[in-house]
Amino acid sequence: LQSLTSDVSGLLNSSVLFSGRLYSEKHEWVDVEGSIGTVGISQYAQEALGDVVYAQLPDIGAEVSRDDEVGALESVKAASEVYSPVSGKITEKNTQVETTPALVNKSCYGDGMMFNHPTGYHTYRVVQKET
């Protein structure tokens, strides 16, 4: 993967300029579809953590800024904070990850996703685009 660093801002409301998965420097990802960003941790991050046994996610309605600490994951060998790669208000969280943290290991880009929030008029940092 080629590392890219640029700020993308503003024009992501109703007309989509970008659709796809972007990665933060801290190994979180955001998958942008329309005006909704779905957030989780990367395959690399879940492999580095090992078997996840505890997950704490942000509350619905919480206002978060890019790079804010919004949750935590604990495994049998490490603990790690979860950071938001985008700014916005949390509209949905994956409560299944809190009750069954191993979903992060089984499907970090699917059932193990963390939370959603709108991406319109907010800025996020593009670090890596999946190739």
From TrEMBL:
**Matching PROSITE patterns, A to Z?**
BIOTINYL_LIPOYL, LIPOYL
Task: Name its co-factor(s).
Answer: (R)-lipoate
Could you tell me which InterPro entries the record lists for this protein?
A: 2-oxoA_DH_lipoyl-BS, Biotin_lipoyl, GCV_H, GCV_H/Fam206, GCV_H_sub, Single_hybrid_motif
Q: Which GO terms describe its cellular component?
A: glycine cleavage complex; mitochondrion
Provide the coiled-coil residue spans.
Answer: none
What's a GO biological-process term for it? glycine decarboxylation via glycine cleavage system
What CDD domains does this protein's entry cite? GCS_H
> What exactly does this protein do?
The H protein shuttles the methylamine group of glycine from the P protein to the T protein.
Q: Which parts of the sequence belong to the Lipoyl-binding domain?
A: 36-116
Record's subunit section = The glycine cleavage system is composed of four proteins: P, T, L and H.
Q: Which UniProt keywords apply?
A: Lipoyl, Mitochondrion, Transit peptide
Q: Residues where N6-lipoyllysine occurs? A: 77
State its location(s): Mitochondrion
Is this entry keyworded Transit peptide?
A: yes
Lineage runs: Eukaryota, Metazoa, Ecdysozoa, Arthropoda, Hexapoda
Similarity annotation: Belongs to the GcvH family.
Q: How is the cofactor bound?
A: Binds 1 lipoyl cofactor covalently.
Q: What is its main location?
A: mitochondrion
Instruction: Identify this protein by name.
Output: Glycine cleavage system H protein
- Organism annotation: Ranatra chinensis
- What Gene3D superfamilies does the database record attribute to this sequence? 2.40.50.100
Keyword DNA-binding, does the record have it? no
